[in-house]
Design a protein that fits this description.
Mean pLDDT: 88
Strand content: 5-15%
Structural class: alpha/beta
Number of helices: 23
Strand order of the largest sheet: 7-6-8-5-9
Distance between the termini: 35 Å
Number of strands: 10
Largest sheet: 5 strands, mixed
Radius of gyration: 27 Å
Helix content: 55-70%
Shape: elongated
Low-confidence stretches: 1-14, 20-29
């Protein structure tokens, strides 16, 4: 078989394998009703409430938590990857639908209806934005209103990344109050509270129902120019739920008007400060508010570790299998066809330069909020080390060996199989080992789109300030990388011809 035919056959095998892999991963028989939530405690609690209410109506429902910011969840709802999630009217008016002329709630509901979405009546509390400072620091500086911040240009502000970019966040607030001189930086919301407590920053963006406000003895600064709109909590859902799961929708809409600000703050405190699992917090609220007994599923540490390990292995295994199948033929093409080398190496090099989180978000649109998105991102991220090592190994084979092979009458395919690939084996395996270590670490980001893995306990640990949970994800990820590295060392020794092994 000629080299071209061998490469063509390999390409067909690769395409079929990748296609079957993606179909298998993306298949979702008996799809449950999917409730989403953003990456802060109140959202996770509300997501648990909605999931348990839907389940109480006899519907197979699941809660996909910690899914990122509002834009990701809203787009997932539009695409049908989610069926419902809690949102806030201020976010809809000022951020998600800011280009629409929507003067009021009735117009908002009508516009959402045109998108195939429904909106509940307000749940009962206004979780508005606020700027918060430590009480003693605010008193020391004489700061009581947001406008007072302009008199202290040296203050350090720690804002969530979303707040740093939103029209109803820092850009608008800075313009409305003339705060251009302040030092503002993006920070994780939970980490910002800890930085505020330690004195590393002077102010944070807060939500009015945050448990940390009372816990850290913070004060809100008066929004004296009334910049922030109302953020009434609501439930966004797909209108087709009225046909697909009417009982579940009716159960979730029982939340309308059922939860005021004090009650929501108490639920947040139980979860964030009291360390009560969000599922249990939601179960207790539902029993008290509606007299409905629901099931709170709380995993033990061992159960959670088994689940996240299986999820991590699935993400890493499928993406690496596809990467190996694609990368080695690409490396061969780059080595054999000189004009193709800069194109192939340049393309996989560019993919490697894209930040992993950005690549995940970019892939949500074509693949949805599924594990397929994470697997495709990990696959693309794993190409460069294998392609580059395959190309480098094949192009570095001494010319006299090729000439000897030609002299004894070997075809190009035979030379590749019997001479070049055995000589390139160690370098290719080194590329695979490098790729898999990168893959395991990057796979922890998959939790941001609900794909699970070791990133889930890490995200939850950061949100709850639980160092044990962070280690629960970080330590197994490191151990998995070490195990795979040692495994590939053994494979290298086993398949490398004895005459080529190092002494």
């Amino acid at each position: 078989m000629s080299v071209r035919r061998w490469l063509a056959a390999s390409a067909v095998v690769v395409v079929v394998a990748v296609a079957l892999t993606l179909v298998f991963v993306g298949a979702a028989p008996d799809r449950p009703l999917r409730v989403g939530s953003k990456t802060f405690t109140e959202q996770v609690v509300l997501g648990e409430v909605l999931e348990q209410l839907a389940s109480s109506a006899g519907t197979n429902a699941e809660h996909r938590r910690d899914l990122g910011d509002s834009r990701i969840l809203f787009n997932a709802l539009l695409a049908g990857d989610l069926d419902a999630y809690p949102e806030y009217t201020g976010t809809l008016f000022a951020e998600l639908l800011r280009d629409e002329d929507l003067p009021g709630f009735a117009e908002l509901r009508e516009h959402l209806g045109g998108l195939g979405l429904g909106i509940s009546e307000p749940i009962g509390f206004n979780n508005t934005y606020a700027i918060a400072m430590r009480r003693e620091r605010a008193a020391e500086l004489g700061v009581a209103r947001v406008s007072d911040l302009a008199d202290h240009p040296g203050l350090r502000m720690g804002f969530t990344p979303g707040f740093m970019e939103r029209a109803d966040g820092w850009p608008g607030l800075r313009a409305a109050y003339g705060l251009a001189g302040l030092d503002a930086r993006g920070m994780n919301h939970d980490l910002a509270y800890r930085a505020l407590e330690s004195g590393d920053i002077d102010a944070v963006d807060a939500y009015s129902t945050d448990a940390e406000i009372a816990y850290y003895d913070l004060v809100w600064l008066e929004d004296d120019r009334r910049f922030f709109p109302r953020y009434d909590a609501v439930v966004l859902y797909r209108l087709d739920l009225a046909e697909r799961a009417p009982e579940a929708l009716a159960a979730m809409l029982r939340l309308e008007g059922a939860l005021d600000a004090l009650a929501m703050s108490a639920l947040n405190e139980s979860a964030k400060i009291g360390r009560v699992p969000e599922a249990v917090v939601a179960q207790r609220f539902i029993a008290e508010a509606f007299g409905v007994e629901t099931q709170a599923v709380v995993e033990t540490r061992a159960q959670r570790l088994v689940r996240t390990t299986l999820e991590q292995l699935r993400l890493v295994g499928v993406s690496m299998l596809a990467a190996v199948l694609v990368s080695i033929p690409l490396g061969i093409v780059a080595a054999r066809v000189r004009p193709a080398a800069p194109l192939v190496l340049g393309a996989v090099g560019i993919l490697q330069t894209i930040p992993a989180l950005a690549l995940l978000v970019l892939l949500i649109r074509p693949f949805g909020l599924t594990s397929t998105t994470a697997i495709v991102a990990l696959f693309l991220y794993s190409l460069l080390p294998i392609v580059r090592n395959t190309h480098a190994a094949l192009t570095s084979i001494p010319g006299d060996l090729r000439e000897s092979a030609d002299a004894i009458g070997l075809t190009a395919a035979q030379r590749l199989r019997w001479i070049e690939m055995p000589l390139a084996t160690r370098s290719i395996l080194a590329g695979i080992k490098t790729a898999i270590v990168i893959n395991i670490g990057t796979a922890t980001l998959a939790a941001l789109i609900g794909a699970g893995g070791y990133g889930q306990p890490i995200l939850t640990g950061i949100r709850l300030d639980d160092f044990g949970l962070i280690l629960e994800g970080a330590v197994p990820a490191a151990a998995m990388a070490i195990v795979f590295g040692l495994t590939f060392d053994g494979i290298e020794r086993a398949i490398t011809p004895r005459g080529l092994r190092a002494a």
